[in-house]
Each structure stands twice: as C-alpha cells, then as structure tokens.
Please model this.
Amino acid sequence: MKISQQAFTLAEVLITLGIIGIVAAMTIPNLMTRYYEKRTVNQLKETQSIIAQAIRMSEDEYGDASSWTTEYWSAKGAEDIAEKLKYSLKIATDCGVSDSNNYCIKKTYLRKNGQKHDINYATDNRYYKIVLLNGTAVWWKATDQNERLSGTYIEFFVDTNGVTPPNTWGKIYLFFLMKTGV
Model:
C-alpha cells in the first residue's frame, strides 16, 4: 500500500512568511507608539501623585508652601524648597542646584525642530534637580514675584525618561504648585 504525503512547497512557505513580515512591519510601530504613550501618561500620573503627596506631607510639617522661601528665581529659593520637600520624596539621585555631570538631567534639550533649547537646565543653579525612584527626572524653581502674585509658587519640570533620549522640549512636562494644588 502506497502512502500519499502532502506538504507545502518552499515558495508557499516563503510567501506566507513574507506576508507575516509585512503585516508585522506595519503594526509593530503603532503598537510601540501606543505603548510609549501609555507608559508616559502613567508615569506622569504617578509623578504628579508623588509630588502632590510630598507637598501635602511637607506642608503638614513646615506650613503652607507659599512661605517656604522668600528668595525667588534663585538657587537659594530652589534650595529652600528642596529643604522642605525632598525628605517627602522618593529620591534615587539628588543633584542639588548644579548637575555639571548630567546625572539627573541633560545639559542640552532640543526643541521639536531639532535646534538646541536656550536654557542649560543642568548647570543653571536656579533649579534644584533630582531623579525619583521611578526614573523620572524632576527639577524645580521658586517662581518669580509676578508668578507668585498670580498664585503660582513652584514650577516643576518633569522628564519621564530622565537622562535617556529623546531629551526634547515638548517631551518635558510642567507641573505648577498653585494656591489650588498641583
């Protein structure tokens, strides 16, 4: 008795693999973009919550955040805020007001058009720089007198990637501590 064997030809297998490859090439970038967006949104929510909780805890101990410093838009003002706030935060790296080694934030951030952003946050001593345990880089400044009069006390800059790329302005997020909260 003769047994009949059937199989796919090499051409059929290669065509099938080619189609699978084309479909994968078209869908994987979209999946990665959605994953990155969801990760960023979740990390921003987590960071906002961490900052808001730290402010509440610090205000319980040191009073209203509007009185944490009288030095505006200066290294002293940023350090005054850090003195009250950083013990309530979960900090992996504390770079203080100078981060010349780029441990917390990059020296140069790019604009969306690819040109360099004009502020060097790493060495600008008006900003206090930290990295949270979740890998998010955060730096803040005590707002200037005009911003304080409008009810904004602290500006927080948040980079969910820390020092890893893309380091692009537009991927840096701002939180403000205002009279109404973060």
User: Anything to note?
Assistant: Strands lie at 91-96, 128-132, 137-142, 152-159, 173-178. The chain is about 40% helix and 15% strand.
